[in-house]
Structure prediction request, 155 residues.
Amino acid sequence: QRRNVNALIPRKPAKLVKMSGIDFTQIDRSELQLLSCRYGIVANDMGYIKEACIKAIHMYLKRVPKPTKILWRIKAMDKVRKKPVGARMGGGQSKVKYLRTWVPRGKILLEYEATTEIIAETTRRAIGHKLPMRSFMIQRPKTEKEIAFEKLMAG
Prediction:
């Protein structure tokens, strides 16, 4: 039997990420405000997201038992250009290879509305697999009208 060698190596604890005196280890969830939907997906790491990743998520949301409303809070705007290997100096700019956007930690990527919490969590998990960074779901607390409506429907 083959053994996983990496499982035997002890992992180092994660280092605290500090930039300009600000500690990014904890995201204050109370400051994250959803605009119009009940659920949202927040980036837990910082990095670039390509336009192809956003399109893959968009295509997934069209196919599954989907959320009823989707509001994107990011858009790929930065153009990435790269000349082919062996190209000489000059000749102007090359073609746009892809579009990307910088996402800081704690940025709300998208908001969505789902009929049940199970669909919302399933959607978050599937979108998380398509993102190049870790993410988590936030939820707007229920209003008094929503609580009253649920009680009326339950009993």
Observations:
- DSSP finds four helices and nine strands in the chain.
- The chain has a mean pLDDT of 80.
- The two ends are 57 Å apart (CA to CA).
- The first strand starts at residue 18 and ends at 19.
